[in-house]
Amino acid sequence: MVTRDRPGTGMDRSLREAAVDGEVFTVAIVGDQPVSRAGMEKLVSDDPILDVAAAVESLDELSGSFHVVILDLPLRSADPTLEIVAKVAEIGRPLVCGAWDQPPALLATVRAGARGCITRHTERYAVREAVRAVARGGFYLSSELVDRFQAELARPADEDPSGLAPREIETLRWIALGFTHAQIATRMGLSQATVNTYAKRIRAKLNVSNKAELTRMAIELGHLTQHPAA
Description:
Blueprint: H1 13-20, E1 25-30, H2 34-45, E2 50-56, E3 68-72, H3 81-88, E4 93-98, H4 106-111, E5 116-119, H5 124-135, E6 140-141, H6 146-154, H7 166-176, H8 181-188, H9 192-206, H10 211-220
Parallel strand pairs: 1-2, 1-3, 3-4, 4-5, 5-6
């Protein structure tokens, strides 16, 4: 019986050659789900050129630097996700894994410093390809995310993935910057009642209930990188 190497199993020619040449990349794994974290650790450690140097629940537990940091986006976090990605980028090239059915948007995540994006359903061989590509200084986007990423690139600057209208986006930015509804009304040339209506619509569309959550969503959606003119 003739057998063939399956892609990304660690048994293909390029991997064997890399292992012989002594090419090894250090990888850290950050994820708040123990089972998922353990599965990712096993998957990555099976690759002869990848060395799992740390597998931790939170970024605070990491020290040192790594070639790649695999960040499984937290389901709940006190810090905005994009801030976590930016912090990861200070210690290693971030490979971000998420469901991507809610903020942050892919484009905003890349702008925050991500060098690759995969999903929780990405095939095992593709995950290894992603880690290797990022470790070597490249960029990787899993095939499941290509259409979504292209759609985000084609979206007009003032169009929001959560369906906010341009004036609602402007209102959200001002709220996130700490302005009161009265101050926002003056700056936008609107009545306070109109600003109150915008704020109510924003909370409904983003499914948030307070200013802190609005600010977090503004960051996750990338709107605080496009401040209104003062």
